[in-house]
Structures are given as C-alpha cells and as structure tokens.
Amino acid sequence: MAMARTIRPEKVEKCITECMDCHTVCLDLAYYSLNQGGELSEPDHIKSLMDCADLCRTSVDFMLRGSDFSAQVCELNAEVCDQCAESCYQFKEDAKMKAGGDICRRTASSCREMAQ
Q1: Are 56 and 17 spatial neighbours (Cβ–Cβ below 8 Å)?
Q2: Are 59 and 19 in contact (CB under 8 A)?
Q3: Which fold has domain 10-115?
Q4: What is the pTM of this model?
Q5: Can you tell me the distance from the alpha carbon of 49 to that of 51, in angstroms, rounded to the nearest whole number?
Q6: Which residue, of 1, 25, 98, 106, has the greatest Cβ tally within 10 A?
C-alpha cells in the first residue's frame, strides 16, 4: 500500500531537499577530511561538519512531521550551516571543500527563508 504524500509549501519542500543534500555532503566531507589528514582533519573542522550534518537531518525530521518548532530548528540550522561554510571556506583551495561551503550557504539561506 502506497503512503499518501503530504502537500507542503514550495519553500518547505525546497528546504527539506537542501537540508538532505547538505546532510549527505557534510558527512562525506567529514570522511574526506579525516582521510586527507593535516589541517583538514582538525577536530573543530570535523565537529563543524558533523554538527551541520546532524542538525540538517533533524531539521528535515521536524519539517516532515510538520512540527510547531520547525521554524526555530531551521533558524538554528541556518546559523550552524553558516558556521560550517566558514569552516569549509578556510580550505577553499580544495575544490571539494569550497563546493561543500557553497552547499552549506545555500542551505542556510533556504532555512532562513523557511523560518520566516
């Protein structure tokens, strides 16, 4: 039996998609950073990537169930994504890190829009 799909406003659907993408990218970048070693594997950078990945997943969960707290969670997620972008941009000579920072920035913007 197929589950009925909930109709959500476009900005919520966009935010869900971007948060899911950011979650995946941040987990991938954490693994990548640890394997690269050196400055990329510094604890604060890894922690930033993991915080972003976890909060993106949590934001998706709140939006999917239509929680009354979705806006507040997304507002916090925007801050965490911005901080993660800055962490990634410190390694902007690494194309993978720069792309990750760009995804975090897009997600932060989408979360701010969703939180309004």
Answers
A1: no
A2: yes
A3: Substrate Binding Domain Of Dnak; Chain:A; Domain 2 (1.20.1270)
A4: 0.90
A5: 6
A6: 25
